Amino acid sequence: MTISRRHFNVLLGASTAATTLALPNVALAARPRVVVIGGGSGGATAARYIAKGAKGAIDVTLIEPAKRYYTCFFSNLYLGGLRDYASIGHGYDKLASQYGINIVHEWASGVDRDKREVVLGSGGRVPYDKLIVAPGIDFKYDSVPGYSAAASGKMPHAWKSGTQVQLLKAQVENMREGGTFVMVPPPNPFRCPPGPYERISMIAHILKQKNPKAKIIVLDPKEKFSKQALFMEGWESHYPGMVEWIPTSVSGGVKNVNADTLEIETELDTFKADAASVVPAQKAGAIAAAAGLTNDTGWCPIKPESMQSAVDDNVYVLGDASIASAMPKSGFSANSQAKVCALAVRGALTGSKVFPARYANTCWSTIAPGDGVKVGARYKAGEGKIAPTEKFISQTGESAEVRKETFDESFGWYDGITADIFG
Amino acid sequence: MKVLIRRAIPITAALFVAASGYSVGAADAEYGEYLSSECVTCHRTDGTQTNIPDITGWDIKSFVSVLRAYKARERQNKVMQTITSGLSDEDMEALAAYFANLKQAGAE
What we know:
- The structure holds two protein chains of two kinds.
- Chain A contains twelve helices and 25 strands.
- Chain A has helices at 5-14, 24-29, 41-54, 75-79, 93-97, 163-173, 195-210, 228-238, 248-251, 286-290, 331-350, 400-422; strands spanning 33-37, 59-63, 69-70, 89-90, 102-104, 108-112, 117-120, 125-127, 130-133, 137-140, 180-184, 215-220, 243-247, 254-258, 263-266, 270-272, 275-278, 281-284, 300-303, 308-309, 315-317, 322-323, 359-368, 371-381, 386-393.
- Chain A has a five-stranded parallel beta sheet with strand order 5-2-1-9-21, with helices on one face. A four-stranded parallel beta sheet of chain A has the order 13-12-11-17. A three-stranded antiparallel beta sheet of chain A has the order 6-7-8, with no helix packed on it.
- In chain A, a hairpin with a 4-residue loop joins β7 and β8 (125-127).
- In chain A, α3 packs parallel to α11 and α7 runs parallel beside α8.
- Mean pLDDT of chain A is 94; it is low at 1-27.
- By secondary structure, chain B is mainly α.
- Chain B has helices at residues 13-16, 26-39, 60-71, 78-85, 89-104.
- In chain B, α2 (26-39) crosses α5, α3 packs across α4 (78-85) and α3 packs across α5 (89-104).
- Chain B is globular, with a radius of gyration of 14 Å.
- The A-B interface holds A 1, 4, 6, 49, 53, 306, 332, 335-336, 339, 343-344, 347-349, 351-356, 358, 360, 362, 374, 376-378, 380, 389-392, 394, 408-409, 411-413, 415-417, 419-420 and B 1, 3, 5-9, 27, 30-31, 33-35, 37-38, 40-46, 48-52, 77-79, 81-83, 85-86.
C-alpha cells in the first residue's frame, strides 16, 4: 500500500529521524491541514488546542475577519459599567506567535466540500484535510415584523458584542429622565439563555443611578426563561418597581416595531420607547448554511461524541451554530466542545489518543454588582445526543456572602477562559 | 485508508499509583492533560489567580483530598461539586500529577 499522509506524519512524529529524511520541505508540505472558520470561543480554542497538542505536526489556519474579538460574555457587564470596553477585547497575536497558527483576517464566503477548500471573500481558497466551522449566530431579522439589519442601528440587537453594545449603552445613558426602555428578547433557541435578563439587570443598574424614575418593559416571546426565579427576585430587591416582564400570553406578541418612532406594537398595547433593544430569532452563522451543514432548523446537526458534522466526516461544527442537544449556546459550551473536537481531529490526522467526550457548561449572570448567580451542568455523549449527568443552579434566598462569591468567581472565570481561548 | 479514531483506553489506579509514587508515564500524561482541559476553562495555568485559585504545583495528596471533599459535598462550591461528580479517584490522581508537573515545568 502507499504511505498515506497520516502514516507519514506518524512516522515523523514517532522518530527523531526527521533530519534523516533529507527533504524537510516535503515533510512540511505534507503536514495535514486543519482550517478553522471563526475565532470565537469555539474556533480559537479548537485552533489553540490542536496546535498545542500536535506540536507542529498539523498545519492550523484560523479564518476570522475581526482583528480584535470582543466577547459576548461580559458585554452586559460593560453595558452596566462594571467592565471597560477594552477589557472585553482580545487579539490573536499569541495564537500566531506562541502556537504557530496561521491567522487569516478575512471572511469565509463558502466551502467547497468536494475539493475540501474554504473560499475566502477575496476569492482565495484555503485547502483543508479537516475543517472546523464555528461561526456563531446570524439573525432571522423578519422574525420580528418591521425589524431589519438597518433597524438594528436604531434598536440595537447588541447580540454579537462589539459596536452594537457600545451603541446600546449610549442610547440607554442618553434616555430622557423618567423614560422607558423596551427589550424584546429572542425566542428559543438562542445564544446565551440568561443573557437578555442579565442585560435587563445591568440596564436597570445604570438607570437606578442615572435615571431612577425610568422604566424597563420586557416584551418576551416566551412564557418562561433561564434563572427566572433568581432574576425576578433580584429585580424586586435591587430595582423595585422598575422592571415589568410581559410574556406573550399577556401581550399577545409583538406585531410590529418601528425603528424611526421607537414604537413597539403588541396586541395588548403600543409601547413608545425612549430606547429599545430588539433581539430577533437566530440561526447558525451564514457560512454554515452556505457550506450545506445546516438542517431545516437553521442549525447544524453533529455527532455527540466528537462534534463532527452529521453530513460530512471531514467537517466539525462547534458552539452556537451546532445542535448540541441539552448544552446551551454559550461561550463556555463552545470552549468545552472545542477540546473534545481538538482531540478527535488530532486523533484522525496523527493517530494521537482520543478519550471519551467530556462536556461541561456554567453560565454566570450578574443581577447587580456583588450579586451573582450561576447555572451549570456536566454532560456526556449519549446515543444521538449530549445529555446532562449532573446539574446545579443558584437558589433564591441565598446569603449575600454566597452571591458575592459567585459574582467574584465569574470575574475569575473570565480571566481563565479568555486565557484558554486566546492564549 | 480509513482513519480510525481510537476509543477510550481504560485507565486503572495501578497506572498512577505505581511503586514509583504518583509518577505518570507519557501516555497517561496525555489523559491527565485531556482531563485538565476541563479545569483550565476557569483555573489559569500561568500561576496567577483572580478569585479562582491557582492549582498548579500542589502537593498531590492535598490536591486529591480537596477534589474528594468537593465530590463528597463537604466543600461547598457548586461548580466544583458538579465537575468532581464525573471524576474517579484515578482521574483525580491523573489531574494532581498533571498540575504538579505543570508548575515544575515552569507553567505554560
